[in-house]
Design brief:
This protein has 393 residues and is of the alpha/beta class. Helix content is 35%, strand content 16%. It has a seven-stranded mixed sheet with strand order 4-10-9-8-7-5-6, sandwiched between helices. Strands 1-2-3-13 form a four-stranded mixed sheet. The protein has a four-stranded antiparallel sheet with strand order 11-12-15-14, with helices on one face. Helix 3 runs parallel beside helix 9 and helix 10 packs parallel to helix 12.
């Protein structure tokens, strides 16, 4: 494939796909690849889900865009559905997860401004990833992503993920914190989970309540059924003030959302934020179609059972070689020995096993299969991974 006119911002693999169906991607010559990555947690319902395809086709033939200068019926319907699923009060629609997180961080600053802070700080986590806009990149921990961009580091305080004592110490050391911003599971950081699981979120909320901070959850990757709940925080009794999501929200259609309740209610008013393409009739109808599929099926239950099957099948065979797994639902991390050379695993999986995966956190295979992957396909994922890994261990 020629990329002559494209900026070299991606280290692209030497392959492209022309068609997708469910858990499968196909090259131009018809070769099938089992997709255990789904566009990095985007196509949670699989490629070209018929209900989403119908919604796109019907709305594209009816009305695509009017701008937010006018009422948009599908936006109202999508907002009601999403807030119902998330247990939130209102939503701002954007185009991506980065923009949703940017909105959340702007909201945190506005919250602080209304309380008289001069230069507020947001508490974020080591190994986090929140996006590539300047403010969301400043909240992100990835040094490679941040290098050269003069990030706004003075606006953030960073503590280890999963360490509630570090959060409490930060509260003692800094009187200018206005919000805490965290992923329930760190996707880009290596599928990191807290030692006490989702109860960690309840501890974080308690600290936010005690100090009157905004409790902000980044569910760009963990939301929309990925972990077996509509949103990952629903595995706990925690309730965020601000909740962001994207990726699986449109099953491949680019859209993001920032939702609020509690302390964040009413922070944004007319003119305080906006988006030309946020919540178009087309995007909003797609959101609603994904919501309908997720809430009128057993797909999220399937994500739990198939995810557990994949994890347990891998550990049953490879645990003796120092391999472990972590994650929830169809958000699976296969943790390899740190001494293992993982630099060519993605290539070998693709070329030898016709399996699409990626590596995150240096030595963790990240699997983000479709939530509706069937047992035969899950067995194939396991078989292909074992074929890949056993000779190397």
């Amino acid at each position: 494939m020629s990329a002559t006119y494209l900026m070299p911002t991606y280290n692209r693999q030497p392959i492209g796909f022309t068609r997708g169906a469910g858990s499968w991607l196909y090259t131009q010559n018809g070769t099938p690849y089992l997709d255990a990555l789904t566009g990095i947690a985007v196509c949670g319902l699989g490629h070209c889900h018929p209900d989403v395809t119908d919604a796109i086709q019907q709305q594209a033939a009816t009305l695509v865009h009017t701008s937010n200068l006018f009422g948009i019926d599908w936006q109202e319907r999508a907002g009601k559905a999403l807030c119902s699923a998330a247990q939130m009060d209102s939503v701002f629609f954007a185009n991506s997860g980065a923009e949703a997180n940017e909105a959340a961080l702007k909201m945190a600053r506005l919250y602080a401004y209304q309380q008289g802070f001069k230069r507020p700080k947001v508490l974020v986590m080591e190994q986090s990833f929140h996006g590539r806009t300047l403010l969301s990149l400043s909240a992100t921990a990835n040094p490679k992503a941040r290098e050269g961009f003069f990030t706004l580091d003075d606006d953030f305080i960073r503590v280890p993920f999963g360490d509630i004592e570090a959060v409490r110490q930060a509260a003692k050391d800094h009187s200018d914190i206005c919000a805490l911003f965290v992923e329930p599971i760190q996707g880009e950081g290596g599928l990191n989970t807290a030692a006490n699981g989702f109860a960690y979120l309840e501890q974080l909320q308690a600290e936010c309540d005690a100090h009157n901070w905004l409790f902000v959850l980044d569910e760009v990757q963990t939301g929309n059924g990925r972990t077996g709940k509509y949103f990952a925080y629903q595995h706990s009794n925690a309730r965020p003030d601000v909740l962001t999501t994207a990726k699986g929200l449109g099953n491949g259609f680019p859209v993001g959302a920032c939702m609020v309740r509690g302390r964040a209610n009413g922070l944004f008013g007319a003119g305080s934020h906006g988006s030309t393409y946020g919540g178009t009739p087309l995007a909003s109808r797609v959101i609603h179609s994904v919501y309908d599929v997720l809430t009128n099926s057993t797909i999220m239950d399937n994500a739990v059972s198939e995810g557990q099957f994949i994890r347990s099948s891998i550990t049953d065979v490879l645990e003796q070689h120092g391999v472990s797994t972590r994650g929830a639902g169809m958000m699976i991390g296969i943790v390899l020995p740190e001494t293992m050379d993982c630099s060519k695993l993605v290539d070998h999986a693709r070329d030898e096993q016709k399996l699409i995966i990626n590596i995150t956190g240096g030595h963790v295979i990240r699997l983000l299969p479709p939530l509706n992957m069937n047992r035969d396909e899950s067995e194939q994922v396991v078989e292909r991974l074992l074929n890949l890994l056993k000779p190397l261990l």
